[in-house]
Every structure is written in C-alpha cells, then in structure tokens.
C-alpha cells in the first residue's frame, strides 16, 4: 500500500507543475517503471501467500495423518491387548508385562486360574451362557483386585493374574478370600482353581518355567478340591 501511494504521488507531480516536455517524458517512464515494480512486488506477495497457505495445508494434512495413524495404532493395540469377550487383557499383554517386570528388576506373583464349571455350563446351557459366565467372572474378579494387578485371559477358561509387590503368602491369602466370596455368593456362584508362583526380582529363569509351575500348582489345587 505504501508503495502504491508513492507511485500515485510521483505520477501526480507533472500535473502540479509546468514541466518541460522531456522531463514529463522521464516522469512517465519513471511512473511506468514504478508500476512494473508494483506488479512485481504484488506477484511476489501473492506467491508467498500461496506458499504459506500450501505449507499450512500440508501441516494440517500431516497432523491429520498422524492422528489417524495414532488411532489405528491404538485400535491395533486394543485388538492385541484386550480380550474382545471378557474385557480382560490378552496372553500377549500378560507376556509383555512379565517380560518388562523381569527386565526392570521387579518381583511379582503370578496366579494361574482355571474355572471349574465352564465345560459343564457350555454342555448343559449352551455357549452363550458360558460366555456370560466368563464375563461375569472377570467382572467380579476385577472388582476385588488392586489397580496395579493385571488380569489376563490366556484362552478358554484359563486366566492369569500378575500381582506386583506381593509375596506368595500374601497372594495365597488374597486369592483364598476372593474365592470364598465368589463360592458363597447367593446370587451367582463361581468356582475356580488356582496356583500361585512368586517370581523374584532379576530372575534368570524363563517365563515359561514359572507359567508351567503355576499351571502345575493349579492342577494340584483342582485335584484336591475334587
């Protein structure tokens, strides 16, 4: 705008004074040169505006793509880490958590659980009722666990609880109390067997060894209950 005002001002000088013809010609030439400069500045300015608009659009597009990518990643993680039926974590998530705790030097207890009556419910009442039994078990169990405990479904009617900062004796006591409450529930009784194994900090043993031991103790518990 300032440049345009200068052009208009310079262009109006010949009309204010009586000037020689040669000087008027020079003013006209100079005025045309200024107009050409004005057009050049105008095009440069439009180019920068267009470039900035393009960069802004690219920035918005990249942000949108990043947000969509994060959403896709979150959905994939949910599929990998959350059991679609019960809402408990999956075996994949449990193995990831165990590996992280062992690598970072945390001790924890693992509780291997097997429901006692799911096969009977599936055979007698159908798989829909069996699915409801699984979901109700997970809901009841979650309500009695700490926020730092992790409940995962290993598959079928088998579950795993990871309890950080908890000794084997403490875990045994907690699981016994939880099972008694579920078995004595007057509205819906749920029975299960479990085996507890304590994993010390910085353990060099393989995770599979602890899982097998917890599974073995769970079957001992089931055999004793029969």
Summarize, please.
Helix content is 65%, strand content 14%. It is of the alpha+beta class and 226 residues long.
Biggest sheet statistics: 5 strands, mixed
Q: What is the element string, with H for helices and E for strands?
A: HHEHEHHEEHEH
- Residue-averaged pLDDT: 87
Number of DSSP E strands: 5
List low-pLDDT spans. none
Strand content: 5-15%
Spatial gap, N to C terminus:
94 Å
CATH superfamily membership of the largest domain = Reverse transcriptase/Diguanylate cyclase domain
Biggest sheet strand line-up: 1-3-4-2-5
CATH topology of the largest domain: Alpha-Beta Plaits
Q: Shape from CA axes?
A: rod-shaped
Q: What count of structural domains?
A: 2
How many alpha or pi helices? Answer: 7
Structural class: alpha+beta
CATH architecture group name of the largest domain: 2-Layer Sandwich
CATH class of the largest domain: Alpha Beta
Q: What's the alpha carbon Rg, rounded to whole Å?
A: 38 Å
> What is the helical fraction, as a range of percent?
55-70%
Assembly state here? single chain
